[in-house]
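Researcher: Batch entry, complex prediction.
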Amino acid sequence: MTFPLVPVQASEVARETDHLCIALVCASAIVCLIVFGPMFFFLFKYRNGHPADRSPVNLPQTKIEITWTVLPLLIFMCFYAWGARQYFNIERPPPGAMEIDVVGQQWMWKIQHPEGNREINELHVPAGRIIKLMMTSQDVIHDFYLPAFRTKQDVLPGRYTVQWFKADKIGSYHLFCSEYCGTSHAQMIGRIVVMSPADYQHWLANGEPGPTMVQSGERLFRELGCSGCHMGSTVVRAPPLQGVFGRPVPLNNGDVVMADEGYIRDSILLPAKQIVGGYTNDMPSYSGHLTEEQVMELIAYIKSLGNQSPTGTQ
Amino acid sequence: MNATLPQTETEFTRTRGRVPSYFEEGGRTVGSWLLTTDHKRIGILYLYSILFYFTIAAIAAAIIRLELITPQGDLVSAETYNKLFTIHGTLMVWFFLIPSIPSVLGNFVIPLMIGAKDLAFPRLNLLSWYLFNIGGLIALYAVAIGGVDTGWTFYTPYSSAFTNSHVVTMVAGVFIAGFSSILTGVNFIVTIHKLRAPGLTWFKMPIFLWSNYATSVILVMATPVLAMTLVLLSIERIWGVGVFDPKLGGDPVLFQHLFWFYSHPAVYIMILPGMGVVSELVTCFARKPIFGYHFVAFASVAIALIGFVVWGHHMFTAGTSIYSGLFFSLMSYLVAVPSAIKVFNWTMTLYRGRIFLTTPMLYALGFIGLFTIGGLTGLFVAALAIDVHVTDTYFIVAHFHYIMVGGMVTGFLGGLHYWWPKITGRLYPENLGRLSALIIFIGFNLTFFPQYIMGYLGMVRRYHSYAPEFQIYHVMSSAGASILGVGYILPLIYLIWSLKHGKKAPANPWNATGLEWQTTSPPPKHNFIETPVVTREPYQYSPEVEERMIYG
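Model: Structure tokens for the complex:
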């Protein structure tokens, strides 16, 4: 049996979170001294049978109370601010991330790399790159927990959640599902393998040769008939998709939404939810016809359209 | 708080003749117990009931701890394991912790403490006990016909659309027990408002009354939200009406909001009464008035109020907005302030006191120690970044067990020993009492402290099997649990033994000031021969005066 005391630190975020934790441990130790020190002293000095001065004294009670109300409050606010700042670091992916898609299902993790490589319960990533995970679940709520990076994020059915990390230490680390998801919850585990960028390229190249996500998405786009309305000049009027990703889209009810992954997902599965301004709802729902992975491939393709032909934007 | 003059039992007997106790008056038949409206008898009925549910839930915990000694899931199947922690959580939370101090000790002591004959609505009180047990038996029926594997939190859409276990039956049990909570809460609020003895103004009330008042407010305001949530869950599960399941157009995170809107205040239902008990014990056994009475009293109210706006801290990684995280983290730090105030005031109460380390006092000191550690680790999980790492790990498990078991159960046992002479008219064996308080403290820390470390290392909760590197901590934890088990069985044995063989208790064995000690032990059916009149502040103890306590 081993006796580990500190978890592996494999990212800058992990080190920063641990600093906060160490500061809290020190503060707690001081509080324990302040509370338990006098407590044991009083218990000893004023125990029954031990002579001591027990005559009542007039202490400045209100001043004392205000002191031990305000002082902890100030200390708490420092930790609050520190924790919140670090939380914003953890929750907001920096720009320039490499995107990998994750689909949770009872009881496995399915992962798709942009290059088309797929893996189950394993995630290979290059060290030193910002990795952004776009995650969804096809059944219940799961949680993608990477203790070595001190990050976790619930993976929800029906929407995308995001988490990011930047591994700086080569190695193999735990991946746990940390939201209870049914019978084999404890088996929904895997590992994350951090490799040098060269090894990662090697690993990608040695994977099963297959289309990239954009290529798979493009094929689906044609096969499902999306291109019939959304591409080229046709009689059916549908909003063009070139360059739509990441831009604000005006809706016919006057709202404006940001065309992110969640918006595109909803537009495919629940087309009636948000109608683009100037259009009518003629699109059938693809809910039930597509797997979560296929939706993600379509999104990858639609995202890629922005780069190809900027002239096609509205 | 003194009545006109403290009277010993002998004075009572000499001046008025022997008064029949509530055991004798009304008879000893089964019917006299099951149809009683006497708050004292109902308190005892609750004591038996919660002991029953506690035992089942504790057996589930014992099997869980046995299973976790080895990393492989080898003792029970994964499915059984999941059902075991669901039984443990559901029964412990709703059928032991929530009713523990309010419904047992509160029921017994509140009317005595305020100088009343009974609670404001004695029949409602009995109904409340029946509802509680109907709910409890339905929950046990759900266990008997196959169990539930959702965890006590019933998260959707797993609970509403995926599991094939008996969720609706279990939820029905909790739903019905909720009404018992609401009725008890209403009863306490009205009693404390309307039935206080002449002279007993709000600021002459013992802190135990303040904390039970705050608890009752939460019971009345939060429990209906739980009831509605469970109804919505059942509607979705039975009829497929989309509320929480995204496939039906619902939102699974909505369930978490509603659930924690009840369940976080419920955590304060599970700790405020314990704080009340500790305030009684520390003053009595330090022979000192409580330091900062108003601050301690209002801290209870502040905890109850702020406790309603912290629920989002259970959901920092659930996919809610990061700005809502900012708000709920701030509120969580704010709610820690009144808790800290209480700890400082209890410690200061010891200064220049005359300290008797009796069993109840040992429990009270244990409470302060464990609650402080639980509260300090609460500052860790309130820090957003740390919570991202430790939520849903054993760190959280350790944190809430320090509060609920280290806090509430320790407070409950302290209170039970303190009022035992009043409840039963018998004294418990003091040395065994002190020994068991010590065993519980050691066993508790050995069980739960290692869980903080393994939680920070990344050990996820509700795992039937785990990575081998965590084993050392699980072995420590299971060893601690067996010590803790001994610590719980010991009082069970000697308290039952004392019912027949314990020395007869005088009216006021602790020379305590509360009104409950101004009547006989055990009290007569209507509590007081004459309605007491209160003229003094609470906790008028004098540490300068040499005293001999019954266990001195």
